[in-house]
Each structure stands twice: as structure tokens, then as C-alpha cells.
Amino acid sequence: xxxxxxxxxxxxxxxxxxxxxxxxxxxxxxxxxxxxxxxxxxxxxxxxxxxxxxxxxxxxxxxxxxxxxxxxxxxxxxxxxxxxxxxxxxxxxxxxxxxxxxxxxxxxxxxxxxxxxxxxxxxxxxxxxxxxxxxxxxxxxxxxxxxxxxxxxxxxxxxxxxxxxxxxxxxxxxxxxxxxxxxxxxxxxxxxxxxxxxxxxxxxxxxxxxxxxxxxxxxxxxxxxxxxxxxxxxxxxxxxxxxxxxxxxxxxxxxxxxxxxxxxxxxxxxxxxxxxxxxxxxxxxxxxxxxxxxxxxxxxxxxxxxxxxxxxxxxxxxxxxxxxxxxxxxxxxxxxxxxxxxxxxxxxxxxxxxxxxxxx
Length: 360
Known about the structure:
42% of the residues lie in helices and 19% in strands. By secondary structure, it is of the alpha+beta class. Strands 3, 4, 5, 10, 11, 12 and 13 form a seven-stranded mixed beta sheet that branches. It has a two-stranded antiparallel sheet with strand order 1-2. The protein has a two-stranded antiparallel sheet with strand order 6-9. It is globular. The protein starts with 6 loop residues before the first helix and ends in a 5-residue tail after the last helix.
């Protein structure tokens, strides 16, 4: 029997070889429970079973495809309940923006699991730790003024309020942005990149370099306003083509599956992080308000600014769970889309219903 190779279905990355089929590491995590149920099958039947499983569970949803076609940009989506997967553009790359803060929080909990930190660990932060964009923590510091924060506070601020200063401090205390990417590699996650801190990322996406003077209110805005339209457009094109700080819907989806199933962090850290995610306050009009009761939904949003009427990133990712232990992972990256924020949010809000995975 000649068994087809399913590498083309799964993408690229570390693979397992089973029943004559090459299976990507992340897909192996998905089908391995199904393999255990089918071990008694003859090898020829098992190979066909695995291939059929990968084909039928990982497909493009017609409803999601219709949503994608109706947008002015690209709708990347990956929705799974651990048994079925529906997707749109699952292997294209999309800018993460503030979704990276959730990955940094995961890396922090991993450090806690390895005894490097605790949720109660305290740090003194000051004016020099300020970042860019939305940063509520900055209100607690100033020239000559410091404040004390715990790891728990930094995680909650970063995830629930999308605080850029909080995540940059957290990343610094973990040992730098490379530690976050190392965490992903160690956990076998492909298709997700976290390369820059928020202060560097937000500056480079518009074409300027971070300066300490940007801590002073209005200085950054004045420098960006002084750029020529040509320079801003060139910066936007570089940003759209940059592979740094991006993810595929499939890659981020499997990261969340590992979190939901307790394969990413310890049991206590998993529960702590899910509760933090369920307290997220940003953009409930995207996914959170569209997940039906009685599901609880924890998530992280991310958004870029707009230029020439286009937003490179409008994102929401999360995990819905119910009291019976079921879960549904939802990843939604809306890239390179025109239209106002309300219209982009409304597109994302349609994804849970279009997936067909709730209420079954």
C-alpha cells in the first residue's frame, strides 16, 4: 500500500512518522488521542483513518470563507473544539499586535512553574520603564516617582487592560524578549513569533525609532505627524511584509489548545491564566459578546493603528469553556482591512456563529 504524505496538509515544522504518514508536531498533538483509540486497526486501515481524520477535521468553513470574501482585507480564523477544526486562511501570517501580551503572560506562568518567579514577586518600576500606546501603569510613575508592582499585577494589566508598560516590564523581568520566543520553541509551538517589545514594535510599525523622549506626552505624536505621507506609506508596507511579531491562525490555535488542555502550563498556572483571560476588558464587541451562554470566554485582543484607511491588524483570540469541561478555541486575525473600527469588530463578532461549533 502506498500511503500519501500529508505534509502539505499540515504545513512545515517538526514532524512525527506514524503509519507511514508524516504528521506535523502540532497536528500530532491534535490527532494523537484519536490514534490511541484506533491502535487495533490494521496498519493499512490506520493510515487511511489518520489521513481521513486530518482531511475532515481541518477544513475551510464555507461560512468563514463567505465572511472572508465580504471583508476588504484578509480574515484569518481557526476554531476548534479539540475534535473538529474549521478555518479560514489558517497558514497565512498576520500581525499579532497586542495579542503578544498573552504570549508574554504564558511565558511568565512558565517561569513560575519552573520556580523562577511567583505571582507575589515584587518589582519597583519608574519613569524609565514607560512604553508606548495604552499604558495605565504609567499613571503611577513620573520623573523621580516609582511604584511597586507584583507579577500578578503585571500579568493582569497586560492581558486584561492591554497595558504596554506592564508587558514590557514583565518581559524585561523574564530576561528579555528572547525568553518569550524560547518558551514557544521549548513547548513545540510553530507559526507564532514574538520578536519585539511593545515600545519598539509600535514605533517601527509607523516608521520611527524609539527615543526616551517619547515618554513625554505629545513628543511621539509630534514626530509621527511630521512624517511625510510617502514615508508613512512606505513604513506601512514594510510593516505588512515583516514576518516579525506575527502568527498563523493554525499556529496560535494550537498554542491555545495546549493551554486549554493543560499541556502548556501546570494545572494551577493554567487555571490562573484562564481566569485572567476571562477578566479581559478590551473590545467585548468582538468575540466575547458573541460567545453564547453558558460558555465562559477568556481572550486577548490586539489592534494596529490605521493609515490610508487601512488597519493592518484587528484581532481577538481566546478560549470558551463550560462547566462540563468542553472548550472551543477561537483565533481571529483580521488583516489589512479597510473600514472603521465598528465594521471590523462586527466582522470578528460573526466568527463564533459561522464556525458552527457552539451548541452541538
